[in-house]
Amino acid sequence: MVSMLIPGLPLLAVLVALVVGWRPAMPWAGVAADGAVAVIGFALALHDIHGSVPSGAGGNLRVDSLSAFMVIVIGLVSMLASWGSVRYLRYEVSTERCTPGQAQQYAVLIQLFVTTMLLAVLAANIGILWVAVEATTITTTFLVGHRRTRGALEASWKYIVLCSVGIGIAFLGTVLVYLAATHAGGHSLHALEWTWLSTHAHALNPAVMRLAMGLLVLGYGTKVGLVPMHSWLPDAHSQSPAPVSALMSGVLLSVAFYALLRFKVIAVLCLGETYPRELFVALALLSLGLASLLLLTQRDLKRALAYSSTEHMGLLALGAAAGGPLAISGVLLHILGHGLAKGVLFLASGEMVIADGSSDVDDARGLLARRPALGGAVGLGLAALLGFPPFSLFVSELTMMRGEMANHMAWAVGLSLVALAIAFAGLTTLGRRLLFGSPPGQAPSQRTPLLVMAPLVAGLGLCAAIGVFTWPFDEILRAAAKLVTS
Amino acid sequence: MRAHGAAAALLALTSGTVLLCAALALWRRAARGIVSALRVQGFALAGTAAVLGVQLHEPLLLVTAGLLVAVKGVAIPLLFGRLVQLDPSSSETDPVVNVPASLVAAVVLTLVAFVATRPIVESVRGVPITLVPFGFATVLIGFFVLVARRKAVSQMVGLLLVDNGIGLVALLLTTGVPLLIELGGTLDVLLVVVVLRVLVTRMHAELGVFDLDSLQELRD
Which end of chain A is least crowded, N or C, by CB within 10 Å? Predict the structure, then answer.
């Protein structure tokens, strides 16, 4: 029953938006709903450590420690994004950049988007997962194009076409898994369930599963934004309204990555360690390499953040390739930390767009002097993203690397460190120009409204707290990681 | 045994038609012609599901066939119809790869599909499985359309070719995925087409063309 309730919460916010229409207070419903999702996720995760599995919706939805953890991630990051949306929508409506009707449409779509992501992580079988991930594309396309500029139109077109193709390939992979499952004695929906697949993995036809796994990695990898299927990502992230970019980068990519984590377990059980690991390592190193090089040339903060997302997805893929409990708990912690840090940075970039008209670094130089609070948040966000303590990304990157070393992947760790160093150079150069550069023209110093700062401070605070205190995440992560290590 | 042979022949006919329509979509330049090819393809896909349903006495497959007729045979072509009326310039007057070369590419892609699917065809037995390359070739031709055609309507067609090809592969390999998934998937495709249509209409309102070459601002 509980698993039915979780996706219902953002749907309530959708209902509120539909019924009351645009009011300056209306978007708060989404903040409340997403916050409640995070709280329920916590309760479930703590409850689940003791090993009970509530399921609902005729067995199509279920919660285990891993999905409960993902519910927490989705809840927290969407709460920040919805919080940022309050400001975004008020500003757009008050400056008549968007009509009240369009603001209502935005509020509806963003919570539908959260619902579809929740369905994806709560899906008990790989068919429902696929339908839900496809649905995330549909709900986000109009959000990407919400600002109605030429660039936004181009980005949304590219986004929906590329992601639909990717998800089509993932469907082919799903069909092949189904084929293997029916030949191994599975029947109908039952044969697509995660639990059935992992208990019968050894009986699945390896030739079919090899092909299936390749297609699934390619398909869901498109949505994760792994190189070479990443080309939609920088455009969509840079053209979307900031809260949408925060959600896409912070959680949508990770939700698709969650699918890969689960499929990898089945692949390892059926095909052994080597093949899935090679697939993941190849995509990880490609993503890390290309994204970090492109980071060096970026002059737009949002585009730079987009490439940094691809880079971090590469790190996750490398951790997943290693696969042991240590590496996987690092991967999961990194998903959470990256979601929070990236969410904060994208929301801050939205405020830059409002103040300076663009997210181009050269238009916003001297941010720290002109707007100390916002500049400080950006600086801390970048520090978190670069892996400085006390933020949790420091712990998670270290944990992943220890896991990778333990699995004899020293050479891959070495290559990833080179990429990280390049990315570090790129982001710090960009950050230095943005924060300390001489301001363009006579830009007056401004105070940043509390409504803007609150989600930024909350996100950074959470990210630091998770990095410092081990409770409660150490137990949750251990339980969740156990599910995806064979 | 005779009935079995007839069913196999019918299956070959319907799935062959799916591939043929993909080639037709490459051959025709007029947007109207391309959309007709898509419509026939939708019906052929539904036909495949129906024949399999009758052959295997699986009533759920007949439901799938009905769903496919409604969505891919009727609704999606209707959605395209309005777009094509809106702007005659949606026809491919000057494709990036010209038509004869495209058809040669289609032949090559079909051969590739036969070679690439051999491992599956050999490792899993059954009459419908031997037809899987038709579906795979349709997918590849869809990819080709996506890469080689720049009109917005053509790109939408490319996407649907990929989807129909995958649908055919799914039907032939597994005699249909569970109905719930089929329903979700088909609904998703319908919604994707609706979204794309809105985007094309917006593009038309802003730029006056259906051409993706006019949208090239974002790059590194």
Answer: N
**φ/ψ bin of A185: left (φ > 0), alpha (ψ from -120 to 50), beta (otherwise):** left
Please indicate, yes or no, if residue A262 is contained in any of the structural domains.
no
The amino acid that residue B211 corresponds to is: D
Q: What is the DSSP letter of B211?
A: B
In terms of Cα–Cα distance, which of B64, B62, B63, B24 is closest to B40? B24
**For residue range B151-193, what is the model confidence (pLDDT) as tens digits?**
888 889 999 999 999 999 999 888 878 888 888 889 989 999 9
Q: Is residue A362 part of a domain?
A: yes
How far does Cα B47 stand from its chain's mean position? 14
Q: Residue A326 domain-assigned?
A: yes
ipTM for the complex? 0.92
- Pull the structure tokens for residue A235: 């455009």
Confidence of residue A442 (pLDDT cuts 50, 70, 90): low
* Total domain count, chain A: 1
Mean pLDDT across the stretch A347-360? 87
Residue from the list B146, B212, B220 with its beta carbon closest to the beta carbon of A165: B146
Q: Which domain, by its residues, includes A389?
A: 273-486
Q: Which residues of B touch A182 (CB under 8 A)?
A: 174
At residue A125, what are phi and psi to the nearest 5 degrees? -135, 160
Helices B76-86 and B152-174: crossing angle in degrees, nearest 10, is 170
pTM of the model: 0.94
Task: Give B56-78 pLDDT, tens digit per residue.
Answer: 888 999 999 999 999 999 999 99
Spatial contact of B117 and B133, defined as CB atoms under 8 Å apart? yes
B216 chain-A contacts, CB cut-off 8 A: 154
Q: CB distance A153–B202 less than 8 Å?
A: yes
User: Any residues with CB less than 8 A from the CB of A436 and at least 6 apart, and which?
Assistant: A366, A368, A369
Residue A394 lies in a domain: yes
